[in-house]
TrEMBL record:
Gene Ontology MF, one: carbohydrate binding
Main location: secreted
Name of the protein in question: SFTPA protein
GO cellular component: extracellular space
UniProt lineage: Eukaryota, Metazoa, Chordata, Craniata, Vertebrata
UniProt gene name: Sftpa1_0
Signal peptide as annotated in the record: none
Subcellular location: Secreted
Start and end residues of each C-type lectin domain: 25-124
Any one GO BP annotation for this protein: ossification
PROSITE patterns (alphabetical): C_TYPE_LECTIN_1, C_TYPE_LECTIN_2
Protein keywords: Disulfide bond, Lectin, Secreted, Signal
The keyword Disulfide bond is assigned to this record: yes
Amino acid sequence: VLALNGKIRDAGEKILASNGKRVDFASALESCEEAGGTLATPMNEEENKAILGIVKQYNQNAYLGIKEGETSGQFKYINGTPLSYTKWHQYEPNGKGTEKCVEMYTDGSWNDKKCNLYRLTICEF
């Protein structure tokens, strides 16, 4: 269960929450799903800023609910739909199939990253 301790933001129709834990992508996704949500997935600038607020609060990069599809360089939401909004850091994504997950930097920009690293868990409900 997520202990929230005031680490909750709302963005439009979504509620964002973090337990402050750093885990790999699969564990982050699992803990969000167990809590009845999914990994935070920014669909627009407002949602990106709300997620960034939590990233800055902890001063840690966080995984987003975005993964690379079968085609190298083609990223999708974890539900399989194509991205409708992106905020890639300059020269990203650059993993060319080796970095399947996406993290948010503390400036709000995105970077493709390996899925086995430990990043902040932020869920959306």
